[in-house]
Amino acid sequence: MSISPAVVRRIMRELSEMEKNPPEGIRIQSNDEDMLDFVGLVEGPEGTPYAGGYFKVKFTFNDEFPAAPPKCRFATKIFHPNVGPTGEICVNTLKKDWKSTYGIAHILVTVKCLLIYPNPESALDEEAGKLLLEDYASYCSRAKLITSVHATPRVKPVEFNTPSNPQDDKESATKSTSNEASSSQPTASTSKATTSSSTSTPSIATSVSSPKVSSTISRKSASPGPQNALKSLSSDKEGLSVNPQKERHPSPSPLSTADANVGTGGKPIVVGLGMASTAGVGGVTGTKAVKRAATNSATSGAEKRKKALKRL
């Protein structure tokens, strides 16, 4: 049956993509004489009675592909509920659930999943479906026997020597190497960070805003030690000796005698520096006080004489 060039190009593109990036456990066995006469190889999944076997799947395309699914069948004998006596496959992906976006790789992945999860409700092999429901041990032993006889080669197929998704493997290898490099780099970066923080950062923190440091400083200033107190006292004494204040003299009392007010020996009266209001007029107030005291003493002497005369 002839196929349109568009279908052929689509099939060739999918086969080329699968050869570059094959799915896990799935390969393509091509024919150099006829590119459309290829076979899909499905490796039996581990943990199933099909483990260790390699099953061939044949494809038959028509002009309706990819709008319609191709016909697929097992070329390798297998004991499975959803595989008929001639190898036809009963799965919804190849019937009502088909989409034009699906392709060869999707069909082979679906077949591999069917080996893991068989569906006895839509069984093409009634015996296999009955054993699966009633006696799973007998089903497994029968499937293993047929797999070892018809699907297990002496040598692993050459197509599986190529690793799955080599580009992904390379990317994972590069990621692992980069992770190793990054895991070794943080040690150096952390050491740098610690040195920088120990040199510059703490000084800034203590000088700008650090509640702990400020509290300690305030405590020290509030309650200095004995040595600091002695130093402060000595510094105060030194300050007094260096900048001595002038002696303060008591201001003359207006009620005292003239001799008491003039007890300074004719020297001018010195007003303390702290009394700024009287410093400017110290001399004037001093003389007034002396005159007032002299007049008071003269009047008091005259009164005493008058009293003495009256007594006589």
UniProtKB/TrEMBL annotation:
Residues 6-152 form the UBC core domain. InterPro entries: Ub_conjugating_enzyme, UBC, UBQ-conjugating_AS, UBQ-conjugating_enzyme/RWD. Keywords: ATP-binding, Nucleotide-binding, Transferase, Ubl conjugation pathway. Gene3D superfamilies: Ubiquitin Conjugating Enzyme. It is an enzyme of class 2 (transferase). SMART domains: UBCc (SM00212). The active site is at 90 (glycyl thioester intermediate). PROSITE patterns: UBC_1, UBC_2. Residues 181-221 have a biased composition (Low complexity). Residues 156-268, 291-312 are annotated as: Disordered. Its EC number is 2.3.2.23. Residues 224-233 have a biased composition (Polar residues). It comes from the Eukaryota. One of its GO terms (molecular function) is ATP binding. It holds the Pfam family UQ_con. Residues 234-250 have a biased composition (Basic and acidic residues). Belongs to the ubiquitin-conjugating enzyme family. PANTHER family: UBIQUITIN-CONJUGATING ENZYME E2 (PTHR24067). This is E2 ubiquitin-conjugating enzyme. It comes from Panaeolus cyanescens.
